[in-house]
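Chain A, query sequence.
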Amino acid sequence: MTSRAIRRQFLDFFASKAHKIIPSAPIVAKSDPTLMFINSGMAPLKDFFLGNQNRPPPA
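Chain A, predicted structure.
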């Protein structure tokens, strides 16, 4: 099984449980000078938690 197939199976599992799949984030944060690099899965969602952006609509 290829890594691409494993990733697709992983994402399909969560999508089947009604989770919204969002694009992957780069390791270097381009729009956030407070982060040198993305070290957690939650960092790309920082602006949503801080109220700087609206939450994307559910899938």
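The chain has a mean pLDDT of 85. Residues 23-59 form one domain.
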